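Hi Y.,

Following your request, here is the sequence exactly as I used it, all 498 residues.
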Amino acid sequence: MDQNITPHVLPTACDFTVFGGTGDLALRKLLPALYHRDLEGQLPADYRILGVSRSDLDDAGWRAEVRTALGVHVDAADLYDGAVDRFLARLFHLNLDAEAPEDWDRFHALLKDRPHPEEAVRVFYLAVAPKLFGSICQRLDEIGVVDEHARVVLEKPIGHDLASAREVNDAVGRVFAEPQIFRIDHYLGKESVQNLLVTRFANTFLEPLWNSRWVDHVEITVSETVGVGGRGEYYDNAGALRDMVQNHLLQLLCLVAMEPPTYVGRETVRDEKVKVLQALRPMAAEDVDRDTVRGRYDAGLVDGVAVPSYADDLGHGGSRTETFVALKTEVQNWRWAGVPFYLRTGKRMDRRASEIVVVFKEPPHSMFPGAEGTTAPNRLHILVQPDEGMRLHLTAKEPGPGGYRLRPVSLDLSYATAFDARLPDAYERLLMDVIKGNPTLFMRRDEVEAAWTWTEPILRRWAATPERPKRYPAGTAGPTSAAMLLERDGRTWTEPDQ
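Below is the corresponding structure, written out as tokens. Let me know if you'd prefer a different format.
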């Protein structure tokens, strides 16, 4: 084996600390994910999960909360009494005030209260507001619990612009070395996203076509039917561009556009993703005006149910924050020059979907004169959620005599049916990678900062113009100007019934 390709080994002992252990993310995603991995026997033999929060709970109280959360977020068929009890016995809670030194002394004592504490891998998952990242890391350093085996996990957003992202990275980087920092984007843990790498690089039929000669354009869509809900305060300071485009959609774009790495692992994938971000066409003011659309949902119907407007969800109508973004960009390199990448994301849309559509060019010559029926460009449709899979759209001849009747058909791969097994949640894969120390599916510092570098001119231009986001009724596909973004190029968005 190449000495640079080191396998990632499961440690024998691990203390997995969740700061924000009583929060929504911990109870809805992190703890159910760890339960499933425990159920499969994949966690270290000697592990503990330490929940840290301001809640006045003892171990029994937190375990009761987690038991309730598992009942809601884990399929009943996977809730075995013995397994749940075994998992809960590994959980411990600490009420901690970040400003109280004596509380940190108790946390230090809790981490040291195990046989051979120096042999345990320590994971610190910061499921808290980003403004606390630096101060928590500093406290961890002061009490002496950060060693070469420690890891810290940062949830998005990493800052709200380039300068603040650098501040966060600097603060965390003063305590943890870059290989110890895991900036998580749960989209990269989804099976279909990982399978995109396998489809591209473990099969030979696509690679000769994966370039500007044969690809007409690429669409990346992440649409949600939900509104801002209880996240109104956070969302109004972020908006769709910061909340979704700067991280999730750009990460998907990178995986579509990246060059083949020498192998999939460690820094090679991240090296290629950074090159894509650096090759994105810079957005001058006139580019922003022409190639971006921002919108905000009004009241409407979603799945037949009346829902309020963004202003009603927020409690006031003075905001200029966007809940929808569509934009056109280009990767300016040898492979992709001239191929438009269209991105869109929004809340209160007509469907919940995350998908990538690679649309190939029409055949250069029609060989079936007089043929009946309809044809459509070949498309590779990668379904990220809610139903993970892949669909290849082709043109085929309908059976029967009397000439050629052409019809679009599809070859479908549904992970749920092709692989007769439960599909793990994205966090399950990513948390295991953290414990094993595998950074491949996590964002590196230069990735985050390259994404902000490209995004910032859009934010500045929007802030400088008096134009407000365009309105769209909840339960629709967004503002009509988003459709025009493609129509002026002679294209249309690919919708589910196509």
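The chain has two domains: 13-155, 188-487.

Thanks again,
Q.
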